[in-house]
Amino acid sequence: MTPFNSKEFRRALGAFPTGVTVITTCDAAGKPYGVTANSFSSVSLDPPLILWSQSTTSSSYPAFRDCPRFVVNILADHQVHISNQFAKSGADKFREVPVTAGLGGVPIIDDCAAHLECVKVAAYPGGDHVVYLGQVEKINRSGHHSLAFGDGKYLRTFAHDLGEVGHPSGAAGLGCLKAQRLAMEALPAICERIGQRTVGIAVWGNQGATIVGWEPSAHPVSPFLQAGVVVSLTQSATGIAFAAFMAPEQTQAAIDEELQARARSGQPDNGQFALRVAEARQHGLARAVGTAASPRHHVKVNAFSAPVYDAGGNMVMAISTTCEAQRLAPDWDGSVPTALREAARLLSQRLGHLSGDPVMAG
Length: 362
Known about the structure:
single chain; Pnp Oxidase, Chain A; Beta-Lactamase; seven-stranded antiparallel sheet; five-stranded antiparallel sheet; 33% strand; elongated
């Protein structure tokens, strides 16, 4: 057997994402106890059995050891603070946490994704933990998305029901709205992957390249970033991405109109737009350097935008990131544009695009 330590073992287990639960109970005097646990699993449908495990060194171990009942509260994705609160030792864990009394007076945490009220039917020793087996007597399921945990951090769950991977027909019927929903659900993870910089998605609307959603970072570049904004096709990274990678019959008329308007206003392009488009096609994503975050916010920013393709190789949206120029280097092969390209590739794959050349503007 290859030797490994507990840290390596924990890290390997982190590759298996789980949901997050808070297990609650009360002692004979009615005092409530609770502990955060992701060691929860279903066991049987008939009878309805579940299990979870607890460290024998936990301060609440005696209460759970002796209790006849417990509740599995499956946390929703807006309840990270509750998970953190019940993971701490020695604190008043139920402080400012709304609960309702369940069967046997066991507290149920309000507004969870689901909860299972259980009677404890067995307990088994398992190394430095004990495994509790519970029979479910009452259930509730809300409409909230579940909180997840993996690789040492909280995650949000989103659907992967897009048909057989590698089979174009699995995504051929995807409408634009479904593609947007998938991208919006992925935005928080993309924001984290590229280093907590503001990330947005844009689609081609009846007025051109249109921002449909933002995931702001801890340091957003502007308070005026909002959905519904139509961006410049010739000046913004997002617009240049559409100009470079979307079929020209969709974009060319709007591009020509914008270039003509700039010339009439005394700001002729002088070939800069064609250069930006050529660079974007060369590097697989578009770039804008030293531009304003919005007309009302004049901090200079750098930005990158990567195309997302459907199963047919058609560009359906752009993922863009923007940040103050001093916090985002303009290098084409820097860590941020590299991560953005990879995020766009993975999202394209989820939409059914696998390999081969996309249908690009020529």
